[in-house]
Design a protein that fits this description.
The complex is a heterodimer of chains A (412) and B (117).
Chain A lengths: L1 H29 L2 H22 L5 H20 L5 H13 L11 H8 L6 H13 L3 H8 L3 H17 L9 H21 L10 H17 L4 H16 L23 H17 L4 H18 L4 H15 L2 H15 L1 H8 L6 H4 L2 H13 L3 H14 L3 H12 L5
Chain B lengths: L1 E9 H6 L2 H19 L4 E2 L7 E6 L2 E6 L7 E10 L3 H10 L6 E7 L10
Antiparallel strand pairs in B: 1-5, 1-6, 2-5, 3-4
The chains are: A mainly alpha (412), B alpha+beta (117).
């Protein structure tokens, strides 16, 4: 029984630490993700059967890899198509070139991430694909996080993997000329995973998604030390994560940044985020994530020291608007302007967004509009905008907060 | 894509809900629906006021009550224009009735080019 437990623990440990590494390695040549996952799944099942009897091997990764490769070769042979011969030969060549099964397994995860976030893969499916292939999440958990029916998510993932296999998409780091754009897609997917653990805060099981996203970001930053944007993303997620404990009161009420108890912030996460940001700034060139991390750093600094960092925040948002043209950046820029030039100036800056269809169903747009109108003394407009924001809120804590703000408006 | 959002209520659960908060939430939801989506929804009288009509051969049956005698009954509907199915799910989540029943999301049929089949 003890051995059985030990074997299971060893398999679980390997699953967590090395699942993505093994899938990436097994699929690097064949580009057959589903086949790699099946082979690895069978290898794990075999391990759970054999290890309790024969003991856990010294190098569990290498053991699993050997069994999985044998399964993979069987799969190819079973399929018996003409195409099968080529990958088999490549697999054999691979084995010889890399000195068999005893050495360290080369890390191909970066190539796999670039494949998952390839332009040929639908944008909304990139994050789910990374969750499944690199972290071993099952389709049911991914579906729950992305609010998609489980069967639909399963089908989409299968189709995406077929596409990766058949469309000749390389599982590799892209050439320099394509690097910036392709890396942005990878980072966006990782940030989307983080967002699942953040905005849906009230639901169980989502916090672990945030942890996985941070882990992926750190992996990217480690594998791509020359990419300031990867570090920027790590810093951005770090600042957000550091504030998590202060985002809600004990009974679950929403607490805006300005009212958060900074004693609840996680100092060591803030330090790490600031380090990552400094490192990114040292490498150079400002991208979206680096700028957003700098903005968060300025917010944190203001709340911790009382120094007015709003002019810096306004300038950084203006830069972000120029860089991305994003309406969300425009909205945040306007909100920051309220602190440097007053509510009327902010309302003037926000006015062009009233024609943007995406903003009409974006809850923070209406909440900001309501806040600015309230500050400028436009009671009726504030009431209307806060009501729309309440109607658009999907988080009950946010809805209750907005209702409280609406109640606090002065009477006519 | 245009979606019809069908609201099914558990009428007992709805009656037991804190009414004032519920209708405040509904007022906000309708305001958002009108402002952000262009049109508000329709609320129906309770299913006890329904009449169901069926033609079988040459006989017309007119029956009291809803088509299906289920715990959750059709109570209203609204339309949304959503770019993705996920956006439609977000609208369903916003609808206060999702807390006391179910919202069924149905894409509106678009006839294929060349006419009805």
């Amino acid at each position: 029984m003890r051995e059985a437990d030990e074997a299971r623990h060893a398999a679980e440990r390997v699953a967590r630490d090395s699942y993505g590494r093994l899938v990436a390695y097994l699929s690097a040549r064949t580009r057959d993700l589903a086949g790699a996952e099946d082979a690895l799944g069978e290898a794990f099942a075999t391990a759970l059967r054999i290890w309790p009897i024969e003991g856990v091997p010294q190098n569990p990764d290498a053991w699993l890899l050997t069994v999985a490769r044998r399964r993979q070769t069987d799969q190819l042979r079973r399929r018996g198509t003409q195409r099968a011969g080529e990958p088999t030969l490549m697999l054999l060549a691979d084995e010889t070139a890399e000195g068999g099964d005893d050495g360290d397994i080369p890390d191909r995860r970066l190539g796999l991430m670039f494949a998952c976030a390839h332009p040929a893969i639908e944008r909304g499916l990139r994050a789910p694909l990374i969750l499944q292939t690199l972290l071993g999440f099952n389709a049911i958990d991914i579906a729950a996080a992305f609010l998609i029916p489980p069967a639909t998510m399963g089908q989409r993932l299968v189709r995406a993997k077929t596409r990766l296999r058949d469309a000749g998409i390389p599982f590799a780091i892209p050439p320099r000329a394509e690097m910036a754009e392709r890396l942005e897609a990878v980072l966006d997917a990782v940030y989307a995973i983080y967002g699942k653990g953040w905005s849906e805060w009230e639901e169980d099981g989502k916090e672990s998604m945030a942890g996985e996203a941070i882990w992926l970001g750190q992996l990217l930053a480690r594998l791509l030390p020359d990419a300031p944007e990867a570090l920027g993303l790590v810093a951005l997620m770090g600042f957000a994560e550091a504030r998590r404990p202060a985002r809600r009161t004990a009974d679950g009420a929403y607490v805006p940044l300005e009212a958060q108890d900074v004693a609840l912030w996680n100092d060591s996460l803030i330090r790490q985020a600031n380090d990552a940001l400094r490192q990114a700034n040292g490498v150079g060139l400002s991208g979206r994530y680096q700028l957003e991390a700098a903005i968060q750093s300025a917010h944190v600094h203001r709340r911790l020291t009382g120094n007015d960092t709003w002019p810096a925040i306004t300038a950084l948002y203006a830069h972000l608007v120029r860089l991305t043209g994003s309406p969300v950046a425009q909205l945040n820029h306007a909100a920051a302007l309220a602190h440097t030039e007053g509510a009327e100036a902010a309302l003037a800056a926000i006015a062009p967004l009233s024609d943007d269809r995406r903003m009409q169903s974006y809850q923070p747009y209406w909440a900001t509009l309501g806040h600015l109108h309230a500050e400028a003394g436009h009671r009726a407009e504030a009431h209307e905008a806060l009501t729309v924001a309440m109607g658009l809120a999907t988080d009950p804590a946010v809805r209750a907060y907005l209702q409280q703000k609406r109640r606090a408006l002065p009477a006519d | 894509m245009r979606y019809m959002m069908l609201i099914h209520h558990d009428e007992a659960a709805l009656a037991a809900a804190p009414q004032q908060q519920l209708w405040q939430d509904y007022a906000a939801f309708n305001e958002a629906l009108t402002k952000a989506n262009g049109e508000s929804g329709i609320r129906l009288e309770p299913s006890s006021k329904a009449t169901t009509v069926r033609m079988r051969m040459d006989n017309t049956e007119v029956l009291d009550g809803p088509h299906i005698d289920a715990k959750e009954q059709l109570a209203g509907y609204f339309f949304v224009d959503a770019e993705t199915p996920e956006d439609a799910v977000a609208w369903a989540k916003r609808c206060p009735s999702s807390r006391y029943g179910s919202i069924e999301i149905r894409p509106v049929y678009i006839p294929p080019a060349g006419g009805w089949k």
